[in-house]
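Give me a protein, keeping tokens residue-aligned:
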Amino acid sequence: YYTFYSMHKFGVSVQMSQVMLFLFLGASALGILLGGPFGDRYGQKAMIWFSIVGVLPFTLALPYANLEWTMVLTVLIGLILSSAFSNIVVFAQELVPGRVGMIAGIFFGFAFGMGGIAAAVLGVLADMKGIDFVFQICSYLPFLGLLTVFLPNMKEARKAQAAA
């Protein structure tokens, strides 16, 4: 709904809203490419945590930003948020060793399935309350990611396995 949001809030053309979407998707692709090597260096849990804590101030500011800042924030959000993507898959595969295919299938199936359901629910909510309201509510979603603090420390688990 980002294109509809940008056209509604800023009065930009369809073409400009597509450029804005391209910036987000391009930054997301770059974040995915950079996130893997950073995860190898700093650990998957650290990258997952960084993507949530790092994106939170930007998502909270996005609904209140002007056009120029919206484009800047959108790039930062895409870059930071997607940096955890490959790290989440690797982390989950480490939690359940030997079940790489199952974890990948669950992760992708669940992620895309929930994304489709959420898009439909948010569309209905946007029809009822307005697209601005939906973006304001969604800006708080990264707070749910703070629950990752409860994820196990896989470095300690690896050390324990190596010692055994």
Observations:
- Residues 2-149 form a domain with the Growth Hormone; Chain: A; fold (CATH 1.20.1250.20).
- The CA atoms of residues 60 and 140 lie 6 Å apart.
- Helices lie at 2-10, 14-42, 44-61, 67-82, 85-95, 100-129, 131-138, 154-163.
- Residues 100-129 form the longest helix (30 residues).
